[in-house]
Amino acid sequence: QVQLVESEGGLVQAGGSLRLSCAASGITFSIYAMHWYRQAPGKERELVATISSGGSTNYADSVKGRFTISRDIAKKTVYLQMNNLKPDDTAVYYCNAGRSSPLRSYWGQGTQVTVSS
User: Fold this and answer.
1) What angle do CA 95, 85, 75 make, to 5 degrees?
2) With a cut of 70, which residues of the chain have pLDDT below it?
3) How many CA atoms lie within 13 A of 80 on its CB side?
4) What angle do CA 80, 78, 19 make, to 5 degrees?
5) Which pairing describes strands 91-100 and 18-25: parallel, antiparallel, or unpaired?
């Protein structure tokens, strides 16, 4: 059974930092691309950051220079370090494990991040 278990989010002031983690089980972690998505109230879910199976990273323009995605293959865990947080970063954050061949996509339960101004 595949599980992605995210750490608790939290409430932080604008300009603060928060690190999310997502621990995977039931998958061969190293062959999956790992993603962080977020969904704000009334908005569609958006892709925030990706780390490929090869370790390359990509970010949404809105978080470049502020967020860093990383992973620990031995711990089967992906992280999202969020610095200089803004109120617009307030959302439920979800981790996702995905691969294309065969097609697989697994989601965490989501964790709330609230940034106060």
Assistant:
1) 35
2) none
3) 32
4) 30
5) unpaired
What are 18-39's pLDDT values in tens digits?
999 999 999 999 999 999 999 9
Tokens describing residue 67: 């967020």
Q: How far apart are CA 51 and CA 24, in angstroms?
A: 14
Measuring CA to CA, which residue among 11, 117, 23, 18 is closest to residue 63? 18
Quote the percentage of the chain above a pLDDT of 70: 100
CA dist 93 and 70 (Å) reads 15
- How is residue 97 annotated by DSSP? E
Beta strands 111-116; 91-100: pairing state:
antiparallel
